[in-house]
Every structure is written in structure tokens, then in C-alpha cells.
């Protein structure tokens, strides 16, 4: 009997423990259910009160950002739409066309403009050099911005950092050539592209991606070192990639050894005769040129001229030595459009009819720079 009583006592204690455990378990379940239900209701209420555009913005944020190296998608096909994405045809490419996938213009310039009256665009080839800081100081003193067509010749390697200074001074940095070796770069379209891309990447790095979408041929676009087929191939391929070129209509002849007085006379005479783009140089030996920049600017200011850097909006056909090749490439081009004046002037090359008597007369005039 005592044994039975002892067992019953133990059993009772076990039963008590089991009841306690069950009660604790039920409490835990109730707490979890209560918390979970509250959280769910809160989420539901928040979701119902969230604006629709907030949901779409979250979805947009979840999309991966486009690579900065991607060429922008095609836009409307209207070359007059400045700032829209440059349109690139990527089908059926072969040979050099598939090389340098980042060597494309990014945005459309829009329809080119005629030159303004009494505006001069100072241009300097073959920089940077040890004279670049002094040239920038002269420009700054006269509140003038200019355009630099840059190279990377062996004697310039220590001066490449001046490209950043040119850009930060508000001037324009454009490709001239990397090696500036006529025989090498004009051997083929492939050779030209390799040289151009090398210089373009240097400028992009120094200017944080602000290399100009235009360039200048070493020796001009009519350089006799190019065969007719190479010239045509280069202009066609560069136009396809969105790059166009400026020659010039005033020659300082500093490249031919003109002294300071002759440089001043050549440039100011060209300006007074209606020229807009003087060709000068910024190599380390062109001290005579440097000495006359301030005087040339003062001549212009005193005679009512203003000075601007090229920004790509000026119609390049006015200064082009190779319009017979360049102009036909612009027909039905989704990215480029001549100014109205020069579209009429070059109507025959574009394969369009003149729109007026004045336009017909203009289109029959001699081609500029031929």
C-alpha cells in the first residue's frame, strides 16, 4: 500500500509537470500567433496605403544599371534632335568596323549652324607642350577659350597632364593624332583607327570622358600622303562612328617657319577677309606663335570680333577640303544634317533638288576648300 501511494505521488508530480509544460507551450504558440498576425496586418495596411508610383520606382531601382561603355540605343532617326542618342548600325560589320566598340559618338550634335558674323575660333594643333601653360595663361587673361587638336608624339610624353589643364580652363580637347606620322597613320583605314583610338582614350582619361566628337586630319583632310581610297575609307568609317572633322580657312603658316610678324599678319588678314578658323600650333618650338596670340585677340576685339571654342555645332562643310567625299555620306544620315544654307549649296552632292533660286545659285558655287 505504501508502495502504491509512493507511485501515485510520483505520478501526480509527473502529471503536474506535464500540465505546466503544456501550458507553457500553448502560451508560446499564442504569443507567436499574436506577433505574426500583427506583423501581417501591418504589412497589409502599409501595402494598401503605398502609392502606385512608389512600387514602380522600387521595381526600377532593382534593375541593374546600364554599363557606361554601352552605346546608347537608337532614337528617332531625326538628325536635328540635338542631345539624343547617336544611332549606330551594328549589323553586317566586318574587319576594322568591329574594332574599338567604345569608339563611337554618344549624342547627336543636331543640325549644324552657319558661322556667325565676326566670330573667330582659334585652333591649336600638336599640343600639349611645355608652352601650353603659358598659352592658357594668355587665353585666360583675355577671357578667350580655344580648341586644341592634340597629339602624343615622343617628345610630348611628359606633357600629357596638360590636357587636363586645357580642359579645366574651359577649352576644347579634340583628337589630331597620336603619333602624327603621315606614312604610318595614312597607310590604311585600320592604321588610322588604331592611332585615333589611342589618342582618343588619352583625352577621355584626362578630361573625364569629354573628348570632342570631331577631329582634325594631320596635314588636313586633303593630305597627299593618303591615297584616294584610304581617304574615302577613313572619312566614311569615322562618319559612321559619329566623328566629323574640321579643316581650316586661315593659315598662320607657323608650321612653315613664319616669324612672329608674319604669323600676326597672316591671321589678322584672314580674319578681316571673313575667315573663321585660324590654324596655329602649340609645340614647344612655336614661341613666335605664342608671342602673337594676345595681339591677335586684341586685334579681333578692337574690330568687333568675338572668340569662341568649337563645340561641334558649326557646319564643318564650310571648312572642309574633302567635301566631294564627306557630303554624300550625309544623305539620309540619321545623325548629321547640314545647315539649311549649305544643304542648298551642296544639293547636287546630296542628290536633292534646290529649293529656291538663291539656293540653286549657292549650290553651283565652287566647293569650299577643294
From TrEMBL:
One of its GO terms (molecular function) is hydrolase activity, acting on carbon-nitrogen (but not peptide) bonds. PROSITE patterns: NODB. The keyword Transmembrane helix applies. This is Polysaccharide deacetylase. Residues 118-308 form the NodB homology domain. InterPro entries: Glyco_hydro/deAcase_b/a-brl, NODB_dom, Polysacc_deacetylase_ArnD. Keywords: Membrane, Transmembrane, Transmembrane helix. GO terms for biological process: carbohydrate metabolic process. It comes from the Bacteria. The chain crosses the membrane at residues 21-41.
Amino acid at each position: 500500500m505504501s508502495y502504491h501511494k509512493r507511485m501515485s505521488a510520483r505520478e501526480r508530480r509527473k502529471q503536474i509537470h506535464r500540465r505546466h509544460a503544456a501550458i507553457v507551450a500553448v502560451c508560446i504558440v499564442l504569443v507567436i500567433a499574436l506577433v505574426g498576425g500583427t506583423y501581417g496586418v501591418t504589412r497589409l495596411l502599409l501595402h494598401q496605403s503605398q502609392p502606385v508610383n512608389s512600387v514602380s520606382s522600387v521595381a526600377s531601382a532593382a534593375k541593374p544599371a546600364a554599363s557606361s561603355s554601352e552605346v546608347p540605343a537608337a532614337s528617332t532617326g531625326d538628325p536635328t534632335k540635338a542631345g539624343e542618342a547617336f544611332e549606330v548600325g551594328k549589323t553586317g560589320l566586318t574587319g576594322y568596323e568591329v574594332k574599338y566598340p567604345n569608339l563611337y559618338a554618344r549624342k547627336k550634335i543636331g543640325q549644324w549652324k552657319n558661322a556667325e558674323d565676326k566670330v573667330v575660333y582659334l585652333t591649336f594643333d600638336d599640343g600639349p607642350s611645355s608652352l601650353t601653360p603659358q598659352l592658357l595663361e594668355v587665353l585666360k587673361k583675355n577671357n578667350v577659350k580655344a580648341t586644341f587638336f592634340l597629339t602624343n608624339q615622343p617628345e610630348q610624353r611628359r606633357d600629357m597632364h596638360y590636357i587636363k589643364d586645357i580642359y579645366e580652363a574651359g577649352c576644347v580637347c579634340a583628337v589630331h593624332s597620336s603619333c602624327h606620322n603621315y606614312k604610318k597613320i595614312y597607310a590604311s583605314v585600320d592604321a588610322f583607327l588604331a592611332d585615333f583610338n589611342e589618342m582618343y582614350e588619352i583625352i577621355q582619361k584626362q578630361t573625364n570622358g569629354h573628348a570632342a566628337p570631331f577631329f582634325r586630319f594631320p596635314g588636313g583632310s586633303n593630305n597627299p600622303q593618303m591615297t584616294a581610297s584610304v581617304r574615302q575609307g577613313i572619312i566614311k568609317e569615322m562618319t559612321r562612328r559619329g566623328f566629323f572633322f574640321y579643316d581650316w580657312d586661315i593659315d598662320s603658316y607657323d608650321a612653315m617657319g613664319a616669324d612672329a610678324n608674319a604669323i600676326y599678319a597672316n591671321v589678322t588678314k584672314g580674319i578681316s577677309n571673313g575667315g573663321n578658323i585660324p590654324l596655329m600650333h602649340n609645340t614647344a618650338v612655336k614661341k613666335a606663335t605664342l608671342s602673337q596670340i594676345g595681339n591677335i585677340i586684341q586685334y579681333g576685339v578692337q574690330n568687333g570680333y568675338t572668340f569662341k571654342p568649337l563645340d561641334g555645332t558649326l557646319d564643318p562643310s564650310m571648312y572642309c577640303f574633302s567635301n566631294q567625299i564627306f557630303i554624300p555620306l550625309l544623305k539620309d544620315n540619321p545623325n548629321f544634317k547640314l545647315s539649311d544654307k549649305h544643304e542648298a549649296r551642296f544639293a547636287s552632292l546630296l542628290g536633292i533638288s534646290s529649293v529656291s533660286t538663291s539656293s540653286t545659285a549657292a549650290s553651283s558655287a565652287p566647293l569650299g576648300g577643294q
